[in-house]
Amino acid sequence: MSGSDPRLRRHHAVYTAADRDGAVLLHSTQNRLYGLNPSAAALWERLCGGEDPDSVISDLSGLWGVDEERLRADARGLTDTLVRLGLAVPEGGSR
Fold first, then answer.
1. Could you tell me which residues come within 8 angstroms of residue 24 by beta carbon, excluding any fewer than 6 positions away?
2. Which of 49, 51, 64, 82 matches a 20 to 30 Å C-alpha distance to 89?
């Protein structure tokens, strides 16, 4: 996640229920549920909420006390998976 990483948005058919234990994503056209642990849920909420990826990584690495580059790599893996599963789309993308 660097300046070249696109912002994400939630796919229009995805609904979220979140609490302190994480989140559940329902893709209504696929009839599938996906579970996120608390850290993945925090990334989902902020990245798909239109926030700048670099700011999200900087903020959360400080909050969680983790190495920024490690969090960046983990977040990139999560966002790649979210896009591949059709749960999120890059800004300007279809769906």
1. 16, 17, 18, 33, 34, 35, 36
2. 64
H helix runs in 1-95, sequence order? 38-47, 53-64, 68-84
Residue 24 phi/psi, 5-degree rounding, is: -120, 130
pLDDT in tens, 15-70: 999 999 999 999 999 999 999 999 999 999 999 988 999 999 999 999 999 999 99
In this structure, what token pair is assigned to residue 42?
Answer: 């925090």
* Closest C-alpha among 2, 7, 10 to residue 82: 10
The total number of residues written for the chain in this structure: 95
- Written as six digits, the tokens of 38 are 């608390």
Spatial strand order in the sheet of 14-19? 14-19, 22-27, 32-36
pLDDT at 95: 53
